[in-house]
Amino acid sequence: MTKTQAQPKKERKPKKPNLGNKAYKFRLYPTHKQSGKLEWILRRCKELYNAALEERREAYRLNGVSVSYQMQADQLPAIKHLREEYQDIHSQVQQDVLKRLDKAMQAFFRRVMNGEKPGYPRFKSGDRYDSFSYPQSGYEIINKRLHLSKIGHIKIKLHREIKGTIKTCTIKREGEQWYAVVRRFGACFDCSRGAEGRGSLKIFRLPT
Fold first, then answer.
1. Integer-rounded Cα radius of gyration of the chain
2. Tens of pLDDT along 153-182?
3. Measuring CA to CA, which of 17, 105, 132, 188 is 20 to 30 A from 9?
4. pTM attached to this predicted model
5. Residue 174 in contact with residue 130, Cβ under 8 Å?
6. Residues 24/184, Cβ–Cβ less than 8 Å
7. DSSP secondary structure of the chain
8. What is the mean pLDDT of residues 21-42?
9. Is the separation of the CB atoms in 167 and 12 below 8 Å?
10. Cβ neighbourhood burial of 207 (10 Å; 0-12, 13-18, 19+)
């Protein structure tokens, strides 16, 4: 090929809009009372996570029984009956705590199967449990306020437009500041969600 002969340029196809999963992070400005409630929920979630981890560990150590997510989720109504303060936390927030633990356990067993360093899940201290999530419902953005079930309306700085359907809302503590991390999917904006999820029966032990 001579220098004067040039390859025809390939026509670039326009990029399709990204309609997949995407996270948006917004600063929250809770009141002093709301900050106290957020901290309180974090402590209860940490307590639930550690109690569920202990049940899994002891059930296997003493009886060789593997406890599943569903077995623990079925105990949540009984826990709320015995520990009434858990009635002040949205049911799906509690379910998400157990799902986090279940994911950690699945990752542990996967590493064991692959011959990697297992790293059994650890109990969480106060500074290592810094977020909780509403995976499907219990949150709504109304007039620059984020409404969270069982908490109320919190001022939120919406520095950009949210495009797509909101799938999850995670409340995260970073130092002394609070943030909402929302994940969206699809092309229409609707962050309104409906009623709570439900569980069934049996019980693992929480500290009194």
1. 22
2. 999 999 888 777 788 999 999 999 999 999
3. 17
4. 0.78
5. yes
6. yes
7. --TT--PPPPPPPPPPP--S-EEEEEEEE--HHHHHHHHHHHHHHHHHHHHHHHHHHHHHHHH-PPPPHHHHHTTHHHHHHHSGGGGGS-HHHHHHHHHHHHHHHHHHHHHHHTTS---PPPPPPGGG--EEEESSSSEEEETTEEEETTTEEEEEE--S---SEEEEEEEEEETTEEEEEEEEESSS-B----PPP-----------
8. 94
9. no
10. exposed
Q: Which two tokens stand for residue 43?
A: 């402590």
pLDDT tens digits for 52-61?
999 999 999 9
Tokens of 163: 């495009």
- Which token pair is 57? 């560990």
Q: For residue 169, how many other CB atoms are within 10 A of its CB?
A: 23
